[in-house]
User: Fold these one by one.
Assistant:
Number 1:
Amino acid sequence: MTDQTPDLPEPFDEVEYRRRQRSRANLMAVLLIGLALLFFFITIAKMTILK
């Protein structure tokens, strides 16, 4: 009978977790700012067309 140790999960790397979390937060901020700018420019374009 062979003695096999079960595969242990990798230790939790909090530094890597925080880095990924910060990266996702930055991406969401960029997307939200881009969406706000898009709405702003669409609104300005509509106002100038309707004048």
Note: The chain has a mean pLDDT of 90.
Number 2:
Amino acid sequence: MTENPENPSPHISQERVKHDPAIGASVRLAVIPDSMGFVILLGLATLLLL
């Protein structure tokens, strides 16, 4: 990939390892709702057990 001084890459480490940002985005999109659901489940269980 050629360097463009007018539009530098915001993720230089991804550019060095030739990592596609779409792969990381799909993982983040799956983890966020799963972890939020788990936190909500634990919160509701705590409220019911008190």
Note: Helices lie at 12-16, 21-49.
Number 3:
Amino acid sequence: MAYNNGRENRKWLIWKEAEEKILREHGVDETTTPQIRTDDRADFNSNRRFYHWTSDFGEYLEGMADRERNTEVKTVADLLNEIEDETLYRALLTVDRRTLQIILLKMQGYSTKEISPLVGLTTGAIYARLDHLRKKLRKIL
């Protein structure tokens, strides 16, 4: 949510008027009150700039997150295209297509039981393929 300067300014003015009323009731010198207001206004402006900046930065991060969601990996080709480590990329190029499909489905949150009918393998075969891949990657990486 964006920082609303007008709303925050109104809240600050209401707060200052209430504070100055209390100061007058307690007999604070009238020359001191404007100095307090000036100092508080400088503090308010500093905070306003900070909150405005963090609001802009938060919106930037939300936009980045939206773009990340839009680049969701949906195919094995997408999976390979997203890999930046060249050693890992070369290692995955040597892996059979079914194992890459298993990896993709695991990344998408599917359980081994759900993956089994999709790739036409038993759960034991899926576990074996993943274990084989882990051992292979440990050697390479």
Note: Residues 99 and 130 are 7 Å apart (CA to CA).
